[in-house]
Amino acid sequence: MKKDSRILQYIQDYRFNSILVKSFGIILGLLILTYFIIIFAVSHKMDRIIAEEVGNMSTNALAKTRDRIDVVMNEAVQIAGQLSLDEEVYKFLLPDTKELFGRDQVIKVKNKIEMYSGVFDYIDTIYIYSNKSKYIVTNSGGGKISEFDDMTWFDNLIKREYEPNRMISRVKYGTYPYLISYIHPIRLTQMQFLGGIIVNIDTQKLEDLIIANIKASQERLVILDDRDNIIFSSNRNEMGKKIDQIKGYENINYQNEDGYQIIHEGKEDLLVAVDSSKEFKWKYISLTPLSAYAEYHNSIQAFYGKLLIACIILSIIATFIIALYCYTPVKSILDLLKNPDTYGEDYEGGIGLKKDEIHDIAVNIIRNLYSNKQLQQEMKEYTNIINKAQLTALQAQISPHFMYNTLENIRWRSITSSGGENEISQIILNLSEMLRISLETNTQIISIEEEIHNAKLYIEILQLRYEDKIKVEWDVEEEVLKHSIVKVSLQPLIENAVYHGIKPLRRLGIITISIKKEDKYIIIYVKDNGIGMDQEEVNCLNQDMVEKYTLQQEHIGIRNVNQRLKLLMGDEAGISIASSLQEGTIVTVTVPI
């Protein structure tokens, strides 16, 4: 309610000058106009677009069916052609009865037939008929034609013996199954008829083969030959008849160009697609009730309903118009942000805008700009002072300058007393070199390769002192050596591992130092097998790593390194600790690349 009252108050204060009122009116008007345009366009074009889309879908589905059936029929033609050229088949067609029906000869011809009928599932049977001997060989054997049961193809072969090869529709045994038979007459000469090869295709298996390409279960598929005979139909009762004998087909225009059409059959509208075979003089016709596409029609309607999303596009245009309308006051604010000094401190005197929300916003922006500018300058000065002081204090904890000169004097006295380099002078040399490195103030960032060298100086001192009690192992990836790290980072961590972890041990202490590149970071692991820490102490240390630096009695080195990493390399840098009592400690250092 409070928010609503504020909006009403704004409208009352600025009335029709309110940007809220103006923007609301423009957007509302454009959206209403957009809705009317879309509704008008969709209502006029929906039915035509859906009819075209459904017609194209039906035509494409029929083309796929046509291609598959053409392939099947071509295979039948090729099978008949190959058998007609076979030597064993020719021997069967030419000789008399006595020569033919040796058992071996029958088996040879039958085997030739089985080579094809056993491979192609849609083939019901293959017949090879010799007109000279009046004998026939099939998949199941051979015998006299007068004793053969399936004769519905015979008249077509004999009465049209000199006509070209052809496809006919028939019923095996006069009852079942329905077959498409490819009849291939064979002649020795133009006038000498030898017989024929009949390849019988089972229409049920053929339909099973092509059913995936039929759009809907209600679709009817019809194939016509060049004499308008129906050689295939989803309705088996129509097979073998002339198309003009079938009621309801008289309105189909299949003689002209291929495509689709809509016809009326009784109370139902049918979508009829017509396509021509590319291999035979056939016409493929599919008939589908438009009701079969109801679901698709509904989905298209839903789709065009969603075209209201087009309002978004028009809303973008509306937004652009609003942006132009509102650009003048916005431009004034942009000028103000770019050149606030133009208005000076006397911003209450007016900034060239009429009294509205933009004017009040501009006045407050100028006021805040001057206030923030002063605060930022003061904060910058304070931050620089604090960082310099803190860094100096931290560095002083590790690198006392006076010790460097003292150690050098002790080393030379040791060399003078012993007459040359010795174990003590080597320790002092390493120690003085470490102090020299820590005292160098020209840079606080060095390469990891240099830092490893410095750490090894310290390790040499430790190993001279503890002899075989400490072992240090290195695992460093070559690619990390040239990356940068804060100076004197490893030595305090190694020292911490020795004095707080390994020194109380009664066994060999092992320190493993691994340095790897992981994504955008260099990760350093300093692991020891020392006495470890309890979880409370670990949690306390990790908490210190994310808070301000404070001087503690223990683990000063870890805190010192962590704080210098954050000051010099950013907040992403830092240290975390994991430890278990009597198992050891792992210190993880994260350095951004």
Task: Name its key features.
593 residues, alpha+beta, Beta-Lactamase, five-stranded antiparallel sheet, 16 helices, 50% helix
Quick recap of the structure?
The chain has helices at residues 2-14, 19-84, 87-93, 97-100, 103-117, 154-159, 203-210, 294-305, 310-338, 357-398, 401-418, 423-439, 448-466, 490-502, 535-546, 556-569, and strands at 123-130, 135-138, 141-144, 166-171, 178-189, 192-202, 220-224, 230-233, 259-265, 268-276, 283-289, 445-447, 470-476, 484-486, 509-518, 521-528, 574-580, 584-592. By secondary structure, it is of the alpha+beta class. The protein folds into five domains: 2-44 and 303-337, no CATH class; 71-203, Beta-Lactamase (2-Layer Sandwich), CATH 3.30.450.20; 206-296, Beta-Lactamase, CATH 3.30.450.20; 339-395, no CATH class; 444-449 and 464-592, 2-Layer Sandwich (Heat Shock Protein 90).
How would you describe this structure to a colleague?
The chain is an alpha+beta fold. It has 5 domains: 2-44 and 303-337, no CATH class; 71-203, 2-Layer Sandwich (Beta-Lactamase); 206-296, Beta-Lactamase (2-Layer Sandwich), CATH 3.30.450.20; 339-395, no CATH class; 444-449 and 464-592, Histidine kinase-like ATPase, C-terminal domain (Heat Shock Protein 90, 2-Layer Sandwich). It contains 16 helices and 18 strands. The chain has a 6-stranded antiparallel β-sheet. A 5-stranded antiparallel β-sheet has the order 8-7-11-10-9. The radius of gyration is 49 Å and the shape is elongated.
